Amino acid sequence: MYFMAQEEDLQRAERYKLISKILGDWSYANPSVPEINEIVPLPPARLPTWDGKLKWIEERKANIPPPKPSEALIELLAKAMVLDPKTGKPMPGSPVYSKED
């Protein structure tokens, strides 16, 4: 800190420590913090208020399922892989087709 003429910023350091702990707790799920510059802007910018929550974790806890693909997309992908679009099972002509299916 001394070489950059910056004052010690304990609140900023505490935020980094808290974010590091949160990311460590969720490391198995590959978390990300795209809003890091909004939470901890580079000095000398002042720290904005922060509720201690990360958007990624809030979205994950909300458990909102992804949007269902359109029927047209399902048909297109199934045709490309020679699959039945209703069941997803291989159809005759598919390299993975088996009569036992």
Keywords:
mainly alpha, 101 residues, 39% helix
Question: How would you describe what is shown here?
Answer:
It comes from Pseudomonas amygdali pv. mori. It is a single chain. With 101 residues, the protein is mainly α. It has 2 domains: 55 residues, no CATH class; 37 residues, no CATH class. It is 39% helix and 0% strand. The N and C termini lie far apart (66 Å). The mean pLDDT is 89.
Q: Summarize this, please?
A:
This protein has 4 helices and no strands.
String of helices and strands = HHHH
- Domain unit count: 2
Q: Quote the distance from N terminus to C terminus.
A: 66 Å
Give the overall shape: rod-shaped
Portion of residues within helices: 25-40%
The largest sheet, given as strand count, sense and whether it forms a barrel, is: none
**Overall pLDDT, averaged?**
89
Count of DSSP strands: 0
Work out the helix count: 4
Assign the structural class, choosing from mainly alpha, mainly beta, alpha/beta, alpha+beta, or little secondary structure. mainly alpha
**Runs with pLDDT <50, length 5+?**
none
User: What's the gyration radius in Å?
Assistant: 24 Å
Strand content: under 5%
Topology readout:
Elements lengths: L9 H16 L10 H4 L15 H8 L8 H11 L20
